[in-house]
Specification:
It is built from 10 helices and 13 strands. It is globular, with a radius of gyration of 20 Å. The mean pLDDT is about 95. The protein has about 325 residues and is of the alpha/beta class. The chain folds into 2 domains: about 5-185 and about 225-250, Rossmann fold; about 195-225 and about 255-290 and about 310-335, UDP-galactose 4-epimerase, domain 1. Helix 1 (about 15-25) links the parallel strand 1 and strand 2 (about 30-35). It has helices at about 15-25, 70-80, 95-100, 100-120, 155-175, 195-210, 230-240, 260-270, 295-305, 310-335, and strands spanning about 5-10, 30-35, 60-65, 85, 125-130, 180-185, 185, 215, 225, 225-230, 250, 255, 275-280. The strands form 4 sheets. The protein has a 7-stranded parallel sheet with strand order 3-2-1-4-5-6-11, sandwiched between helices. The structure holds NADP nicotinamide-adenine-dinucleotide phosphate and ligand F7E. Ligand F7E binds near residues 133 and 285. Ligand F7E binds near residues 194 and 288.
Length: about 325
């Protein structure tokens, strides 16, 4: 029997790298979609990548794009995956206000291109859609669960809402095993540098080592339910192993402000953030999501999933990793 095959879009991103590690550890063959870029963009998965000609190499990277349906169709037809994880997206909420049309194209329509690709081939891979707590947006209900009404507050969230409903629709209309993981914010040392947690821990490490004096931020009062990405990819996999497809909220149940993240991170490094942080309206959003807090009881009961890493541990992990990285850079360059 051949090993299970997974196709992952967004493999070069934070979640793609953790999911690839998990699936390889479970014996899967992993096929990852990468975009052509003018510089290398595979640093998060380079440690996993073996020479494609090497016998037994179980991670393969293929050029494609969520904006290019023909590349996706060809991949599905030739790879014949058992599971498809759609993690690819223009995933930055603030940036989605600057490039709303492109965000809709990739984050929204990219999903329908994959779903149609599956339908046209007549294959029956299981399908995971990376849905987001941003769907809840301006809701007044707390905590949010699978029954909470959506109220998207950005082009990103509106594109994710379209993708969410198309995933449900293909499940109901065509009997596809398709599920939405409605994941609340999840972070790690591999988090993109422009998301607020990583922006803070990276700047903190530079400040501590005398390489930066100021950190410019937007709204410090926003509340998020921050978990650890390594825990959350396990939930993705579990959703894909059930007798029936369904949608699940994945969250820690705790909520903290950006200000509390600053307290925890700078406090851990023995610094007072008030001396370094400056407000910059550039980082405010035309419409903000003020408060998110998830209720993952359904995932706990049906999937047996629960988060292992708590808020303080997550902050420490990210600060330690950025401190180590900056130290290494300084030792390497002498600056
Ligand atoms: P990320 O680090 O920003 O990674 C996004 C990935 O999408 C990258 O691999 C990127 O490739 C790829 N991508 C972008 N445009 C693409 C296109 N046109 N065609 C194909 N691939 C494209 O995001 P993440 O944090 O890992 O999140 C993974 C998914 O979960 C995303 O869909 C995100 O919206 C969603 N989500 C994230 C969170 C969170 O807190 N992290 C929570 C809920 C949902 P390049 O490397 O080439 O740019
Ligand atoms: O912002 C505030 C900002 O960009 C968090 C994506 O993975 O999670 C992520 O979206 C909060 C917001 O994440 C800065 O206004 C203050 O209230 O880290 P973020 P996000 O917008 O919650 C969801 C679940 C996703 O699905 C998305 O893909 O922090 N904030 N000052 C700032 N945010 C940023 N980025 N930069 C600042 O300077």
């Amino acid at each position: 029997m051949r090993p299970k095959r997974a196709l992952i879009t967004g493999i070069t991103g934070q979640d793609g790298s953790f999911l690839t590690e998990l699936l390889l550890s479970k014996g899967y063959e992993v096929y990852g979609v990468i975009r052509r870029a003018s510089t290398f963009n595979t640093d998060r998965i380079d440690h996993l990548y073996a020479d494609p000609h090497e016998e037994g190499a179980r991670l393969r990277l293929i050029y494609g794009d969520l904006a290019d349906g023909s590349s996706l169709n060809k991949m599905i037809r030739t790879i014949e995956p058992d599971e498809i994880y759609n993690l690819g997206a223009q995933s930055h909420v603030r940036v989605s206000f600057d490039i709303p049309e492109y965000t809709a194209e990739v984050t929204g329509l990219g999903t329908i291109r994959l779903l149609e690709g599956i339908r046209e081939t007549g294959l029956t891979p299981r399908f995971y859609q990376a849905s987001s707590s941003e769907l809840f947006g301006n809701t007044t209900e707390a905590p949010q669960n699978e029954r909470t009404k959506f109220y998207p507050r950005s082009p990103y969230a509106a594109a994710k809402a379209y993708a969410y409903y198309m995933t449900v629709n293909y499940r109901e209309a065509y009997g596809l095993y398709a599920c939405n993981g409605i994941l609340f914010n999840h972070e790690s040392p591999r988090r993109g540098e422009t998301f607020v947690t990583r922006k803070i821990t990276r700047a903190l490490a530079n400040i501590k080592h005398g390489r930066q004096r100021e950190l410019f931020l937007g709204n410090l009062e926003a509340r998020r339910d921050w978990g650890y990405a390594g825990d959350y990819v396990e939930a993705m996999w579990l959703m894909m192993q059930q007798p029936e497809p369904d949608d699940y909220v994945i969250a820690t149940g705790e909520t903290h402000t950006v200000r509390e993240f600053l307290d925890e991170a700078f406090g851990y490094a023995g610094l007072d953030w008030h001396e370094f942080v400056k407000k910059d309206p550039h980082y405010l959003r035309p419409a903000e999501v003020d408060r998110l807090q998830g209720d993952a009881s359904k995932a706990r009961e049906r999937l047996g999933w629960k988060p292992r890493v708590g808020f303080k541990q997550l902050v420490k992990m990210m600060v330690d990793a950025d401190m180590a990285r900056v130290k290494q850079e300084i030792e390497g360059t002498g600056k």
